[in-house]
Design brief:
It contains 1 helix and 4 strands, in the order ββαββ. The protein is mainly β. The chain has a 4-stranded antiparallel beta sheet, with no helix packed on it.
Length: 103
Amino acid sequence: MAITVFDTAAPVGGAEAIYLEATAGSAADDARAADLALLNTRLPSGHRLVPEDLAPAGPLLVCQAAISRHFVLVRGGDARFDNVTDTRLAVFPPDPGHSTHTT
């Protein structure tokens, strides 16, 4: 699966974005209550969900995504990357065994 996150209110050509590649599947039954509580923190009051809204009783399915690759948007014309068109730049998590901090 692919996930893109960006600010839809940004002017054309002004948005930053992150692209994620992931595998997704149904959330574990024992995680459903916590997942629903977290989702409800993001929904406006009056539009919050209740357990009956979720499968198997309701029409909604709670899924979790396991992210495998990360990319950021590099806008076309960025002198740091010598790119003419928009492109993706792979981002890698820091190696936990390698410190970049020096004293």
